[in-house]
Specification:
Helices cover 29% and strands 31% of the residues. By secondary structure, it is an alpha+beta fold.
Length: 396
Amino acid sequence: GAMDQVQLIKRKDSGRYEIVPIEDPLSFEKGFYAVIRACQLLAQKNDGLILVGLAGPSGAGKTIFTEKILNFMPSIAIINMDNYNDGTRVIDGNFDDPRLTDYDTLLDNIHGLRDGKPVQVPIYDFKSSSRIGYRTLEVPSSRIVILEGIYALSEKLRPLLDLRVSVTGGVHFDLVKRVLRDIQRAGQEPEEIIHQISETVYPMYKAFIEPDLKTAQIKILNKFNPFSGFQNPTYILKSSKAVTPEQMKAALSEDFKERTEETYDIYLLPPGEDPEACQSYLRMRNRDGKYNLMFEEWVTDRPFIISPRITFEVSVRLLGGLMALGYTIATILKRKSHIFDDDKVIVKTDWLEQLNRTYVQVQGKDRTFVKNVADQLGLEGSYVPHTYIEQIQLER
């Protein structure tokens, strides 16, 4: 298991021990045990302070990871590099700029702890973007200090570290979490945030963070899913069986509304993903000239497709920003829909241009109700438990 993978080797330069790099990325859970095991082994073999660098892009789950370790080993200390920000150096609101870190104070603090002395760690306030004071940090009884931050594995710090750990998130989950966090933190519009990410955060990540993360001895891939917090899913049953508008009307309550619409869905493949196997496209929807960006995770609970999603209204120029982030257009799906809607359930037919085929869909928030309406339409036994993009992948 993860425990056996953790092995020590003596360093050439200092005679201290370090961890033999583990080639493959570990899951959040396995990574957690590997880091704990590594800390224990290093503390047995090395004298003095054991300094662990934990780095990764913003939103990847570094903080959750360190908190989990702290719960397990309360005798460690954590230094969050955000507290060494120097707000006077912020240019164009770019808080991920590596030049923001006050390395003088940070290195001073690390050397103090290595000499066994208590140090004064700065306290940074995000609201005012300024340093508001200091706290005293003693050398912890375990002698283990975790340095956590985007640049915790930077060249300036690497020579001082006994263990290098990286935490990265799933592909665009980093993007979604970042967007959600900034909406809450700064009250910005999603569009502004995504632009800021495509114009500053991501290029910074590519240029400055990613190369550092490659030096980690333990690499953790956090598949945490930001959608799991969305407890308001839509249940969908779909079928390629032919159903007439009369049958559809008959299955609904008296006060249904009827409409037709045309939709273009631009499916964007995240950077580095395999188009054959991708489960998490980003979708940009164009309807009546209005664009929405949809982050989706599909869950199949046969015969249902369950769709939790987060949607932001955006302008078409965002497409350029996403392409700059390395997203590529996988396909553009065009469909014409005839929709009947009575507040409790939506019944509609979709004609898909790519497949030259019509599907019927029943959608709603109440699973049992959706099932009953679909039964009434005689769809039992004919369900297609795939999203349209999956259907196209299957038929290629």
